[in-house]
From TrEMBL:
<feature type="signal peptide">
    <location>
        <begin position="1"/>
        <end position="23"/>
    </location>
</feature>
<protein>
    <recommendedName>
        <fullName>SCP domain-containing protein</fullName>
    </recommendedName>
</protein>
<keyword id="KW-0732">Signal</keyword>
Length: 234
């Protein structure tokens, strides 16, 4: 009986340790190959959006794995927030809705087929990135009437960049592709401007690298301690 109790205790400790070691907010992030069809769909939607609402500066959008560094700074649903170079999908505010409606009104455009502003429609975004998360995040979303609605992000969350805010001047009214400082691509979407490439000397990147190393070291220590406890118990 005593041996059985020790065995059950060991199993319990092992399960607890496994939970502790695996309880990360992000399960995995999708790579470019997995997101090819998603990217094509988004490009098509942005083209249609630009045509329907006469947005002259709609930029081409691509899947950007470099956003993973920023994404992994967030460790829980409560920590999610828009930042200086990114905005999370479905994190719209009342001000975003007002800005969107103001653009439509000032340019004599009807509401059309898009009932509400979505991050995908931000003309200055040039990239997006998505990760699968461990548990659903419950967030509030602003509907077309400016009212807060509770909704659930099930198991996949997307970040768009590099626009940090949304103001009416972000939308340039006119024929799609007619107001692109860097020219247009084959879809009449604006080409993105040159970006500053982060190096390992960049403070933000150094912080991300160090945090990843610390997380790995912490997991190894946790596993070692769990095994040690099990050996002592058994």
């Amino acid at each position: 009986m005593f041996t059985m109790n020790k065995s059950l205790l060991a199993v319990g400790i092992l399960m607890l340790c496994a939970q502790l070691c695996l309880s990360e907010f992000i399960i995995r992030c999708r790579n470019e190959t997995e997101s090819e069809s998603h990217t094509l769909d988004y490009q098509k939607l942005r083209m249609e959006f630009a045509e329907e609402y006469q947005v002259a500066n709609m930029h081409a959008l691509k899947y950007d794995p470099s956003l993973e560094e920023t994404f992994r700074k967030f460790t829980s649903c409560d920590s999610l927030q828009n930042g200086v170079n990114h905005r999370f999908n479905n994190f719209g505010t009342v001000e975003d809705i007002k800005t969107w409606k103001s653009y439509l009104k000032n340019n004599g455009i009807g509401r059309g087929t898009w009932p509400a502003y979505q991050e995908l429609a931000h003309p200055l975004h040039t990239s997006f990135f998505g990760c699968e998360i461990t548990s659903p995040c419950i967030q509030t979303r602003i509907d077309e009437n400016g009212e807060k609605k509770t909704f659930r992000v099930f198991d996949y969350l997307e970040m768009f960049g590099p626009a940090a805010t949304l103001v009416e001047s972000d939308f340039k009214h006119g024929k799609p592709g007619s107001k692109c400082p860097n020219g247009v691509d084959e879809n009449m979407l604006c080409k993105e401007p040159k970006r500053v490439v982060l190096t390992t000397q960049d403070p933000l990147k150094r912080e991300i690298i160090m945090r990843k190393k610390e997380n790995v070291a912490g997991k190894v220590n946790s596993i070692f301690m769990c095994l040690l406890v099990i050996v002592l118990v058994v």
